[in-house]
Structure formats: structure tokens, C-alpha cells
């Protein structure tokens, strides 16, 4: 275990140094974050001109986006791009036989980028939003604790879904649209694009039976008081159930993907 941790730290350090060598990454990322904040605020301000919607307020909605962006920076992985690029270049064969586990390498690379993007993009946007708009704090200390716990579980769910979808790159001749497909699923059923409390009741019921809402939306529901801390046990139970199902599915698809790679390699 200590060896894996050392490898993880080494990969994170290496990727961080590579990211920092390109200052354009930092500048463009910061400008994008500020521009996105301005557009969201202008859009939702216009929509709320007629009053509250679904019992929500402008400050609650903006808080949802800003804080969930901070969370999504550690959830929104792009393993399909990594796997697809390795398959297309042929590096996948050597990566699978290296002493560094392939999944550990991908996760470490993602975490390195997430850490740097959080510091250079999300936190500056968060500070600007707090200073100019004012964000809502957690509804209570217990709600914040629920937010932390469900966020950790949501990271596992998101990673497993991402890996399962990304493995389709082994069967496809191109992979660029896999990331688009994944984002569409989370945007539609997970409340990334629009908070789920704005959905009609029938759409909310559909989302409740899918794993996507138990990623970004569920922690924010506790944070903003949309769900009471008393329901934390049920929420954790559902998240753990999805983790078990998705883990079994991920292992099955991964075993099939490796056989597919062997066939392709002759």
C-alpha cells in the first residue's frame, strides 16, 4: 500500500510540474471561470426578475453552481480521453504491463490536474462570487457534515460511471464523443446543468432512480438544506448500493475490454 501511495504522489508531482510549465493553462482557465460566473449570474438574474422559482432564490441558485463547480473539479474526470488517446497511439499495451497500475496512473493524473485547476480557476471564481455576489453558507453544521460525507461517496460513483463509459473506447474507432455523452448524462439526470428542483415532478422521479443525481446534486441538496440531515442514512445507503452495483459492472466491462484489446493486437 505504501508503494502505491509513493507512486501516486510521484505521478501527481510530475503532472503538476508539466501543467505549470504552460502559463496559458492558468490564464485561460481563470478567464474562463470568471466569464462563466458572469454569464451565469446575468442569465439567472434575468430569469429571477419575475420572482422566485420553485421556492428558490437567485443567491441559492448561484451558490449551487459555484460550490458544485468546486466539487465537480474533483468529480469531472475525463478518463475516456486518456484511454482513447492511449489506444489510438498504441501506448495502452505498454501501460498495461508497466509496474504502475493503469487505473492508479489515470486517477493520479486526474487528481493533479484537479488540484491545480482548483487553485487557479475555481477558488478565484469562488472568492469573486463571495465578494461581489455573496454565497450562502451551509444551512447548518450537520448539513455541512452530510455534504462532506456524500461528496466523498459521490466521487466514487462518478469515477465508476466514467470508467464504465470510457471503456467503450476499446470497441469504437473514435472516442471524442464519449466525453460528450458522459457530460450529457450527468447534465440531464445529475443536475449539473440545471438544479433538479427546477425539474417537473415526473422528471425528478426518473432522476431519483438513476445514479447520476447521487453525485453533484446530492451533496448540494444537503448543503443548501434541500434535504434534512435526518435523511443522511438513507442517502448513504443508496450511494453505497450504487457503488456496489457499478463496481461489479466496471470489473465486468474492464475484463471484456482487455480481451478486446488482445484481439485487436492479434
Question: Describe it for me?
Answer:
The protein has 11 helices and no strands. By secondary structure, the protein is mainly α. It has one domain. Helix 2 packs antiparallel against helix 3, helix 4 crosses helix 5 and helix 7 runs parallel beside helix 11. The longest helix has 33 residues. The mean pLDDT is 84.
Q: Would you kindly provide a brief summary of this structure?
A:
Helix content is 74%, strand content 0%. It is mainly alpha-helical and 266 residues long. The protein has one domain.
User: How many distinct beta strands?
Assistant: 0
- The best one-word shape is globular
Q: What about the largest sheet?
A: none
Quickly count the helices. 11
Number of domains: 1
In whole angstroms, the N-to-C terminal distance is: 35 Å
Computed over alpha carbons, the radius of gyration is: 20 Å
Structural class: mainly alpha
- In the predicted model, the low-confidence regions spanning at least 5 consecutive residues are none
Name the beta content range: under 5%
Helix and strand element order? HHHHHHHHHHH
What is the mean predicted local confidence, pLDDT?
A: 84
Helix content: over 70%
Features of the shown structure:
266 residues; mainly alpha; 11 helices; globular
What does the secondary structure layout of this molecule look like, with pairings?
Elements: H1 2-20, H2 23-47, H3 58-72, H4 79-89, H5 91-97, H6 102-132, H7 141-166, H8 176-189, H9 201-208, H10 217-223, H11 232-264
Amino acid at each position: 500500500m505504501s508503494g502505491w501511495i509513493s507512486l501516486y504522489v510521484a505521478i501527481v508531482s510530475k503532472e503538476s510540474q508539466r501543467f505549470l510549465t504552460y502559463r496559458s493553462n492558468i490564464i485561460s482557465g481563470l478567464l474562463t471561470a470568471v466569464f462563466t460566473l458572469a454569464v451565469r449570474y446575468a442569465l439567472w438574474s434575468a430569469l429571477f426578475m419575475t420572482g422566485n422559482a420553485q421556492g428558490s432564490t437567485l443567491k441559492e441558485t448561484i451558490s449551487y453552481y459555484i460550490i458544485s463547480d468546486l466539487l465537480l473539479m474533483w468529480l469531472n474526470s475525463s478518463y475516456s480521453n486518456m484511454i482513447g488517446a492511449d489506444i489510438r497511439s498504441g501506448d495502452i499495451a505498454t501501460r498495461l504491463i508497466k509496474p504502475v497500475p493503469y487505473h492508479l496512473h489515470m486517477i493520479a493524473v486526474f487528481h493533479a490536474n484537479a488540484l491545480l485547476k482548483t487553485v487557479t480557476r475555481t477558488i478565484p471564481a469562488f472568492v469573486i462570487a463571495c465578494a461581489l455576489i455573496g454565497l450562502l453558507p451551509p444551512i447548518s453544521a450537520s448539513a455541512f457534515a452530510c455534504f462532506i460525507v456524500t461528496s466523498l461517496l459521490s466521487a466514487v460513483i462518478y469515477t465508476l460511471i466514467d470508467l464504465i463509459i470510457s471503456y467503450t473506447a476499446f470497441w469504437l474507432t473514435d472516442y471524442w464523443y464519449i466525453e460528450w455523452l458522459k457530460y450529457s448524462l450527468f447534465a440531464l439526470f445529475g443536475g449539473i446543468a440545471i438544479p433538479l428542483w427546477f425539474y417537473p415532478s415526473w422528471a425528478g422521479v426518473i432522476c431519483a432512480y438513476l445514479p447520476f443525481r447521487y453525485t453533484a446534486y446530492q451533496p448540494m441538496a444537503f448543503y443548501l438544506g434541500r434535504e434534512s440531515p435526518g435523511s443522511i442514512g438513507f442517502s448513504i445507503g443508496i450511494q453505497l448500493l450504487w457503488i456496489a452495483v457499478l463496481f461489479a459492472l466496471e470489473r465486468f466491462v474492464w475484463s471484456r475490454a482487455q480481451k478486446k484489446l488482445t484481439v485487436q493486437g492479434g
